[in-house]
Design brief:
The structure is a single chain. By secondary structure, this protein is α/β, with parallel strands linked by helices. The chain has 2 domains: 318 residues, Rossmann fold (3-Layer(aba) Sandwich), CATH 3.40.50; 78 residues, Sandwich (Immunoglobulin-like). 26% of the residues lie in helices and 26% in strands. The protein starts with a helix and ends with a strand. 45% of the residues are buried.
Length: 417
């Protein structure tokens, strides 16, 4: 439990540290509820070819009313319901989307294809089949926003700031979208199911666009194999009741509150196992357990709902709080941040920083997660190398200041092996 507590404390230390460093890019937007009213657009079609058929899936989009920002962070939240019930209109999804829109996000909650009844899910192959349908539909929804941003960008999305998450079944789908990189990672019986649903990219439309997300909210989520957790997995915030009878908090059979143990379903590992697995690899994560609570306690307890919401908002803000700046006469265009390369990442000897564009590097600093500066350089030109030998393995924050007036610092997460 000490390690799990540390991951939570580290998140809030990180928030405190960067809010008190005078970073012009990091305001209270994306953390505090700054907007009093929101606009909502219901039943937006994000695909008309779900599952490779003429099947339409819808989403609702929420955004802050009167917002003048030309590019905004996006959060996509996916409802629960054990892959056989629920919708984008579920109370917890509407609650999160409205709260996040008040913080300045554009927020979407999506529908996805479901089983007809819970009886269809009384074996692992069927559960995995409907999980893959949700996985495929969710990827199509992410691609919808990348596609729109490449065309008219009617939703004004900063595609470097896309977050995903969900509750229960929606969290499971989010975990797989974030972690699964190859069909070969799956157990043999599941590989055929994945391929039948379009493989890793899915077959639900908007092909050719990215599905990258920079962080995940896994709210009572799970995976069937902890080996999916590997370097490069996005930072994740976990929330779950420790007495969850639907998705095991640790590892065990799922859906026992429906099957009463009479039917074998699928073995899942929940937040209590995923978070330590990320800790062991130095992957940024935070775990908020709700001791003694059952499945999705935020659905029935307003205090827990607010704690969950605050934990997700704080974690997402810690991952990325910066606001994009736009160029062009219309106010829309590219993010006014220089092309920057930081590699290798993870690094074990030297971290190379390369800059393209008008400005030169002025100062480079590396901080650990307690906010302590561990390296500092004052380079001239567009290249800099920082030795990381002797540093403890883990995640660090790199701050890069550019020469010239009016340039905001650039922040990057780096991993030292």
């Amino acid at each position: 439990m000490k390690l799990k507590l540390y991951s939570i404390v580290a998140t809030f230390l990180l928030l405190f540290f960067f809010q008190n460093q005078g970073h012009a890019q990091c305001t209270n937007r994306y953390l505090d509820t700054l907007f009093t009213s929101i606009d909502s657009t219901m039943n937006v079609v994000y695909t008309d070819s779900a599952g490779g058929t003429a099947t339409t899936e819808l989403m609702d989009i929420y955004q802050p009313a009167g917002d003048t920002a030309c590019l905004r962070h996006l959060a996509i939240f996916v409802h629960g319901g054990a892959f056989f019930e629920g919708s984008k209109n579920d109370g917890d999804m509407e609650f999160l989307c409205k709260r996040f829109a008040q913080r300045g996000y554009v927020c979407a909650t999506i529908n996805y294809r479901l089983a007809g009844t819970v009886v269809e899910l009384y074996d692992s192959a069927q559960i995995f089949t409907y999980m893959m349908k949700a996985f495929s539909d969710m990827k199509a929804a992410i691609r919808y926003f990348y596609k729109d941003a490449s065309l008219t960008n009617q939703w004004k999305i900063d595609t470097t700031s896309i977050f995903i998450g969900g509750s229960s079944a929606g969290a499971i789908a989010s975990d797989y979208v974030a972690m699964l990189d190859s069909v070969n990672e799956l157990a043999t019986p599941f590989q055929a199911i994945c391929l039948a649903n379009g493989g890793i990219s899915g077959n639900s439309g908007n092909s050719g666009y990215s599905t990258n997300a920079i962080a995940v909210a896994s709210l009572a989520g799970a995976i069937d194999d902890l080996n999916y957790i590997k370097p490069g997995v996005p930072p994740t915030v976990f929330c779950q009741g420790t007495a969850d009878g639907t998705i095991p908090y640790n590892c065990g059979e799922a859906l026992t509150q429906y099957t009463f143990g009479l039917y074998p379903t699928i073995r899942f590992c929940g937040s209590g196992e995923m978070s330590p697995a990320m800790d062991s690899l130095g992957i940024l994560n935070s775990l908020m357990p709700f001791p003694g609570s059952g499945h999705v306690p935020w659905d029935t307890n307003a205090v827990i709902e607010n704690r969950m919401d605050s934990a997700v908002a704080a974690f997402f803000y810690a991952v990325k709080c910066t606001q994009a700046v736009c160029t062009g006469p219309s106010g829309l265009g590219t993010v006014a941040e220089p092309q920057l390369s930081v590699y290798p990442n993870p690094a074990n000897l030297t971290l190379h920083i390369g800059l393209a564009g008008t400005f030169d590097l002025a100062e480079v600093r590396l901080y650990d997660y307690l906010g302590c500066e561990v390296r500092q350089q004052f380079p001239s030109g567009k290249q800099s190398d920082i030795a990381v030998t002797g540093l403890a393995s883990g995640i660090y924050l790199l701050r890069i200041d550019l020469a010239g007036p009016g340039n905001n610092p650039i922040l990057r997460r780096v991993v030292v092996e």
